[in-house]
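Exam prep: given the inputs below (a chain plus zinc ion), describe the expected output before reading on.
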Amino acid sequence: MSKIARFIIWICSKFTKNEIEQIIAGLLDVLEDRNPEVKPKDDFKEKHPHYRDFSVDPLAPLTEPPQPKEPLPLKDYKQILAAYKLTHGKPLSPVKYRATSPRVPQQIVCACCNAPHRYLYYNDGIKRTQLRCKVCHALFQANKRFQKGKKTRYYCPYCHHALFTWKQKKEVTIYKCCNDTCPHRLQKMNKLNEREKTLAKKRSSQFKLSYQYRQYHYQPHELTHAEPGQPTVDLAKIYNAPDILGLILTFYETGRRGRPCRTCLANLIF
Ligand SMILES: [Zn+2]
Ligand SMILES: [Zn+2]
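Solution:
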């Protein structure tokens, strides 16, 4: 039995027919907006439980780009280097960069033989999307999303994408994952009901779906209480009853007419 059905039975057990008619008339006034003081309960929040439901994401962001999960290298650069030395009588020298050519970041290794970054160079200049290995001569794509950009400080702990600076305020910087296919975002999306999914298309900012990290620009020990100025009078030490104090405060409120009385009474108790 629904709670409404149970409530109707309860009403019938407590009220007469005449009283129930009065209740119905009162409820009709509310439904037809004739009662300015009573409005039906807004069930928007019940229908949209995730609307403005802002919570702190439990995982901290990564501060270094993780290594991409590439297929295992097919060759071993150490073996190739050893073979080179045997054949040529000297070790293979690392890449000699021109002053203007871009450097390969330290965390990138050859996708084929695992050779470190000093044996790699960009094959397409400033585009920096394609790398060539000097050891095994393999050509492979630079996985841009894992590269540490100049401005990148944090990475999403769920999808490893670089977080972008979403909001910058004096006291806090908010970083956000912008990957639409981030597993964290998809999981949050799946929790939305159909009504929320429709509303999220119009008011996406009101649903917290993407991973966020808030970096506050102060330490906990720097937080101090906002303290009002010390009062000149300690009300705990007055000698008269609280109703006299109430009277004085009333005179303060009533302005000029009460001034002589309030001064007189204040002198009595302080
Ligand atoms: Zn290689
Ligand atoms: Zn993510």
